[in-house]
Amino acid sequence: MKIKFGNTEENIITREEFSLNKAKNILEKETISVLGYGIQGPGQSLNLRDNGFNVIIGQRKKSVSWKKALKDGWIEGKNLFSLEEACSKGTILMYLLSDAGQISFWPILKKYLTKNKSLYFSHGFGLTFHKKTKIYPPKNIDIFLVAPKGSGTSLRRLFKKGKGINSSYAIYQDYSGKSLEKTLSIGIGIGSGYLFKTNFKNEVYSDLVGERGTLMGAIQGIFCAQYQVLRKNGHSPSEAFNETVEELTQSLMPLVAENGMDWMYSNCSTTAQRGALDWWKKFRDITLPLFEELYEEVSSGNEAERIIVSNSELDYRNKLEKELKELKNSELWKVGAVIRNLRPDKKD
Known about the structure:
The structure is a single chain. The chain is of the alpha/beta class and 348 residues long. The protein contains 18 helices and ten strands. It has helices at residues 20-26, 41-50, 64-71, 83-89, 99-109, 125-128, 130-133, 152-160, 179-189, 200-212, 217-232, 237-259, 261-266, 270-299, 302-312, 316-328, 331-342, 344-347, and strands at residues 2-5, 8-14, 32-35, 55-58, 80-81, 92-95, 118-121, 142-148, 167-173, 194-197. A ten-stranded mixed β-sheet has the order 1-2-10-9-8-7-6-3-4-5, with helices on both faces. α2 (41-50) runs parallel beside α8, α10 (200-212) packs across α14 (270-299) and α11 (217-232) packs antiparallel against α12. The protein is globular and about 65 Å long. The chain starts with a strand and ends with a helix.
């Protein structure tokens, strides 16, 4: 359906106009090989399986993710194979390894990309930054992506509730002339709420900016700064955490998700309303240059270069564990762990 956002018109694909039955009919002769069972692999493959598609898993044998796949009901030799076996058996190869994993496995995968196969991504990184990743696919296959706007865990959780995460979709190469219908079919099959069009470059630019910005990086920085100021000025850990994180995530954000921030501004106390109206532009103005710098670093390829170099270091895992441990052991998130366990739903 065509939807107008101000002066911009977008084509949105919903489940009503592109049904699950239609999707299954389009892909009924396809074998969908999900390569990788880490972040997006479990949610997408389990949803496809539950929706009745012919799905198999490719994963490195005896790895942690291999054991997880077995636990999730995939059967070795029936629908769980090594990466190479799954590449050989599949007609649509869903390349859901991590960005670093995609770079590493590409010399092997490309040997299986024979004429008329399809290559699927959920992230535009590998092809957008191909000069750095060295991922150059053949010309006689279809290449497309569906990118859920949320974690694989959330994709699965909402699917089981009969809901869905919105996803973007893009066609990179349409060799068969049928890439669009295959893309939308998988998008519906994995449980997307609705699908909106993008391209590989825009998907990865917006994704990297979002992760470093309001989705994770910026919000953690704001949490940390406000919590630190409150604690420095004599507020208790419980009070500082509740006013910084708990009220936002448990009370306000669900309301914003349902009704929008404009509704929130209209339905709070006059004191809160006046303060929020007076301060939000100050936060915008002070962070706007930082977001402009961030976008420039992403679009220039500098951010991708840093990611690839960092992830290729031999001691990367050790450095990562140290950084994550530091975050987990900060007072902010130690307090958070205690408070989450005090929620009534944890005691039911």
